[in-house]
Amino acid sequence: MTLAVGIVVIGRDEGERLKRCLHSMVGGDRPVVYVDSGSRDGSVEFASGLGVQVVALDLSTPFTMARARNAGFEALVGAAPETEAVHFFDGDCEVEDGWIERATAYMTDSAACAAVTGFRHERYPEASVWNRIINVEWRGPTGVIAACGGDALIRRSAFEAVGGFRPDMIAGEEPELCVRMRLAGHEIVRLDAPMTLHDADMQRFSQWWLRAQRAGHAYAEGAALQGKSRFRHNVHAVRSIAAWGIALPAVWLTAAAFSAALAPVFLPWVFWALPALLALQTLRVAAGMRQTLPDPGERWPYALSCVFAKFPQAQGLLRYWRGRDRPRTLIEYKDR
Length: 336
Fold this sequence. Notes:
Blueprint: E1 5-11, H1 16-23, E2 32-36, H2 43-49, E3 53-56, H3 65-79, E4 85-90, E5 93-95, H4 99-109, E6 113-122, H5 129-137, E7 143-145, E8 152-155, H6 156-161, H7 173-183, E9 187-198, H8 205-226, H9 235-262, H10 267-288, H11 296-308, H12 310-323
Parallel strand pairs: 1-2, 1-4, 2-3, 6-9
Antiparallel strand pairs: 4-8, 5-9, 6-8, 7-9
Helix pairs in contact: 5-11, 7-8, 8-9, 8-12, 9-10, 9-12, 10-11
């Protein structure tokens, strides 16, 4: 006997992306809840027309995806109390045929498993270099892993035991939840199977920058919350971002200022030191991915992104550290 599964989808102004998303999962015997966060594109009306239960999030409290997922979970188990596992999806993702059945079968057979995920793929990786970079980001190891993203099947009992998502986190709430479930003795698993088609719709450098800034904020908050746990959540990432994105530029600027004032002859050497270090680091990262990313059209853009993302990520760190005691607003990269 397999677990009883329900579905929660969150979104705001996803338009055609949401239509593809809901069409890929309605029509079966699984209850579906859509949580809308103030859409103005007819998303609520469309979802209602499909017979999907709609939850309109109260926007008098600052919106977060974590809060939306929690609201969807509460509505789902209220309407279908027999639910034993909830599959969360983002509204810009279309579920692959057979995925939910495969994930459910795995979780049914594995009592230790609290969350099952698979592979996301970009719908249009050829549309821009930024989409191509994100398509590479979705890849990762299979088997027992440290954390999953927004598309995952989560066991209800494990979710409830740790209190669900932290509703005030503006990013990185899924890995932080995974830390708490792992600390409780559960496993997070990625199956070697396609799970969803994602539509990042990233066309500009500014969108890439904002997305990386959001990642930096997520690393900082995750480390603040769970960095002292035995998993040392995000500690290495925060140190790397701080070293490359904050300390190194500060040392470079200081050296350049002293050279300009005291020894101008060394200024050209100092000036080129940082670009040279970044170029060497890019070469090192690209060389390390030769086996996993044999296609240079994927390897080099991704390597460049890994290195140069330290600067917007550093902005995200600083944004979190400066505002950690104040209400935080979303860092969004998509056009709405």
